[in-house]
């Protein structure tokens, strides 16, 4: 396809120059031109304004007017076509002024000929087309969401797109010419040096960089570098494409932390189950001996044994609370009362150098929660805050209503859209270092001295809050303090008050079937029941239990069965007993009192659930309550 001729407008007040230029253009070998001519400034203004030409050739002198001034005016008015300035004789100063005004080239009339004019026209148009193409490409780069910029090997910025402006907070005009270390801070300079070395060897590098922007925001970018041979006047430069992945990395960290905690939880729950089976007979035996021994020295020692057995049981409960979430008694609570109670306790027990304050907003929503467990959460956080302020400081507990929208929920794996009560515990202590922040909720992880902490405090806090359908956020700064924000799902109903449970009466000779694979638990449970006016027979597994129940069905008033046993587990045993007698009364027992186990037991129709280790009093009260059904 034949190309259209190049439309040339000559602006010159000398007709002889027009004739000469016409002859030269007719001799062109590569391009074809159509020449028009105007001989004064005003006619030139009108012609340029119509934008009908591909290139303008302007004489420096237009009578009393200046061709240089015409070029400046045309460029300022938005002229897109290239302009070539003609001068009568070579003047370096005029040539520089022409380029600064916006001319594509300058030619001296005395040296001009047909080939030189053709080459100047062709190069001017090609250069203009190239500039137009670059601007179009730059406009496309500005549409991109990735930060794209070009820097020379010394780190000086040569190109800067709009996404880079948004990411780093520097406008294009301010960024161009600056070095990268002036625009943002790299947190790993060694990685940066390695990246530059790899780039020079392979002409490409890709990796993740941690940076701090102009506003002090810490970001993570996925960075891709390409070595470019020519960019502008630079022989070598680096094209950088940075994609911000801060939010993605935060979600990945939350997911990995959740997986790690789940694995630890599975191991810990198995250990906790076995420990409960060990502690249950110790606790019940000690309580039984307490009511039977008269020796004064033994009576002094037994409370120590009971107390330490209970401490061990509480420790196991903390592990279970962390791993799967213990199912406690839930009531509608107004957290204001709990916070004020905790404030009173810590004011009386914490050092006077620690200032304690509360900030509870009015009309606080209620939550469905176990008051004891939430009390434990607040105390654990306050004790940690105290330990972080050995020289004193400020401890504040705040509570407010908080609504989580879809955007917030998307930023946090554990959050769901809805209303929450947010409790914030803030201290002005030593803070938590970034190296251990991801591990603070792991069980048995502690930075305290030996014998000063079990490492279960925060893991218990996390387990309790998760079991209540909530979540925790932590912010901290070294030497400035930490802030723990607890989010609990809010309820619309008003709070309910706890009822005080009455003491259970002794038995009336009823026969209880005790089913457990642990000899010690079977024997001490049987002894405890018989000591309180019950009769008891025992079975070591589900199969033996079914055989005994079939034989003594008419005499057995209640079955007390473990949920985890060899040969036949508790659920299968319960279902089989219910087939024999749909009205059988059953209390399920387990050393692993997770919410799913409790739910599974209640779903098949048991009357009550007891978590190991239980005291004799808890056992008797539960039996008394079930027998009243």
Q: Which descriptors would you attach to this protein?
A:
single chain, 629 residues, alpha/beta, seven-stranded mixed sheet, six-stranded antiparallel sheet, 21 helices, 24% strand, elongated
List the helices and strands and how they pair.
Blueprint: E1 6-11, H1 15-26, E2 33-38, H2 41-50, E3 55-59, E4 61-62, E5 65-66, H3 67-76, E6 83-87, H4 92-101, E7 105-108, H5 114-143, E8 147-152, E9 157-160, H6 162-168, H7 172-175, H8 180-183, E10 185-186, H9 189-202, E11 204-212, E12 218-228, E13 237-244, H10 246-290, H11 296-323, E14 331-333, H12 335-349, E15 354-360, E16 366-369, H13 371-387, E17 393-404, H14 406-411, E18 418-427, H15 434-437, H16 457-467, E19 471-477, E20 481-491, E21 511-515, H17 519-531, E22 535-539, H18 542-552, E23 556-562, H19 570-580, E24 586-590, H20 595-603, E25 608-611, H21 616-627
Parallel strand pairs: 1-2, 1-3, 3-6, 6-7, 15-17, 21-22, 21-23, 23-24, 24-25
Antiparallel strand pairs: 4-5, 8-9, 8-13, 10-11, 11-12, 12-13, 14-16, 16-20, 17-18, 18-20, 19-20
Summarize the structure.
By secondary structure, this protein is of the alpha/beta class. 45% of the residues lie in helices and 24% in strands. α19 (570-580) links the parallel β23 (556-562) and β24.
Radius of gyration over all CA atoms, rounded: 42 Å
Mean pLDDT: 84
Q: How many helices? A: 21
**Structural class per helix/strand content?**
alpha/beta
Shape: elongated
Assess the beta-strand content as a share of residues: 15-25%
